User: What shape does this take?
Amino acid sequence: MTRRRLTMVVAGGVAALAGVWATGSLKAQQPGFKRVELQKHDLGVPGREVVQARAEFEPGAAIGKHTHPGEEFGYLLEGAIELEVAGKPNARLKAGDTFFVPPETIHAAKNVGSGPAKVLATYVVEKGKPLATMVKQTAATAPAPK
Assistant: This one.
């Protein structure tokens, strides 16, 4: 393979990866964060489904700003997280606490405890859409300088 051809193949691969990243899907897990789908069912409402998942955070791990195409109902099973929901003050949650995130609302979470954190999340979402979509960082969504 010539050097020029190799360069074109590598550039094509990088472009393909950039295209996948640009879609913002959370199919690729973030380091230290894992979402395990427990069950998925169609609802009696056409075009809607319910997905139940367990989100697991290693100590210090976070899931960046993202949205869901429907409501998220959460229950903290273990540990402590800080939940950031657009338009609301950040909330520090501990095991036994619950939370709600409205549809298409930008939010993020970080494990602020010393051990793992686990969340039982139930999503009532539009069928056929990605469960979660990462928010591209812009000046409006970037953290304030320290």
